[in-house]
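Section 3.1: Structural characterization of target chains.
Under the original work plan, the team committed to producing a structural model for every single-chain target entering the pipeline before any wet-lab resources were allocated. The record below documents one such target. The sequence was received from the expression subgroup and is listed exactly as submitted; it comprises 293 residues.
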Amino acid sequence: MYNKVKELISASQKFQKPISELIIEQECLTSGLSRKEVWNKMKYNLSTMKKAVEKGQEGEGVFSKTGLSGGEAVKIKNYRHNNKTLSGDTMMQAVQNAIATNEVNASMGIVCATPTAGSAGTLPGILFMLENRLELTEEQEINFLFTAGGFGLIIANNAVIAGASGGCQAEVGSASAMGAAASVEAAGGNAQQSAEALSIALSNLLGLVCDPIAGLVEVPCVKRNAIGATNALIAADMALAGCKSVIPADEYILAMNKVGQSMPTALRETGIGGLAGTPTGQAIKTKIFGKNV
């Protein structure tokens, strides 16, 4: 079991294996499953992600029962088709994928929690853009998920991945960091560059609060996944360019944990503070649940 990022990087360098391969081997060892069984489980996760992305972009899109979210992935799809985007078509494709996934989640559809349902759009947002951008094979896409999962496991074991425990930095922040690290490997970068990307991505979202309006995983959660996806890609590009983080990845993870512990309860998925505590946020809560809630 790799408990620290530095252990994972050291093993990759020592054995001359990509992180994805190390994680596959670890999963076989800890689960007792064969390589084929482990691989097929991750293949199923990939399929689940792809179906959610596609569902969120079909027709007029999908909508939640509350009416707070839905249809925006399709709006972005149409915008990309009819306009010259300001941030570039590549970035907006990632945004479209991320929002599509989280709109499916908000509409009670099936998603792959990576690492949580509230942050489920970040990795698919990145991955299915890279599928086109880098012409990834299915094998490479599955390896992407193993790499992301390996880093995610380290984050979970040394900090938190739940908004109720550590704020949105622990959900979308962790997902963004996982995606950044995996993107580096998918683009041909080395393990140390993956660690640098993780650090950069995590630092950019450090301190992000979890303040869902009415306590529902819709606003601002859906759009934050879009930010998580684009943040990951920027961090990966910086790492591939040779940029480095002053603070090591493992220290970033511990810092995130301490920041999360320092957050007041109102900013940890309670639907009380932040955007949830605004007059509009409170009015929406009353409209959905009534005055006595």
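The chain has one domain: 5-289.
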